[in-house]
Amino acid sequence: MTSDTTAEPDQQTVETPAGDARITWHAAKRPRRVLALGHGAGGGIEARDLRALAAALPPLGVTVALVEQPWRVAGKKLAPAPKTLDTGWRALWPALEEPGVPVVAGGRSAGARVACRTARELGAHAVLALSFPLHPPGRPEKSRAAELLESGVPTLVVQGGNDPFGKPAEYPEPPKGGYELLEVPYGDHGFAVPKRAPLSQDEALRIITEGVAAWLAVPDGAR
After folding, report:
1. What is the pLDDT of residues 24-39, one digit of tens each?
2. What is the C-alpha to C-alpha distance for residues 90 and 94, in angstroms, rounded to an integer?
3. Cα–Cα distances in Å, from 70 out to 38, 46, 184?
4. What pTM was estimated for this model as a whole?
5. What is the DSSP string of 89-136?
6. Model confidence band, residue 180 (pLDDT cutoffs 50, 70, 90)
């Protein structure tokens, strides 16, 4: 990939039926993709993986749009029901399409679930699922694999090796044309790695940024 010059982040407020949402644009100068990333139910766009991708991808020609759901913009502490999250995301979609390039839907944890549930209907080019919550901690029988398997578009799951919401080995065998899985060794649900691990935090984040960059660089139709 060739390097590209990026602009300073720009914020955009978007009205949705669930309230005002906010997009923070980390724009590539000559974008070939928009990667839209929603946050989880317990945090915002300050998550380490979202910040790392927003810094690493724009120089490679991928505009990163960090999306804050209305409940987060309003300062509430608890996320609403999945249906409300989907409503907010759908209403944001036209703004995400404004740059005129294919949009990859994505997010971390609850944001990944939203991206998977709505990808087909919104015409997402692909889905990036960071720390997909395959099941509640300690409840593998409450699997959410169906949401992932039914995204309907090429999907990359990036999962910590020690994620209590679903370790890589717990994922079902993907069907033909299904998802790809990238493991971050020793990482938890937030991709934090223990200090005693033979992998530094910076190295863990590099696995994410380099893996996602390589996945996004695969030509259309080559998967």
Report:
1. 999 999 999 999 999 9
2. 8
3. 11, 16, 30
4. 0.94
5. HHHHHHHHHTTSS-EEEEEETHHHHHHHHHHHHHT-SEEEEES---S-
6. very high
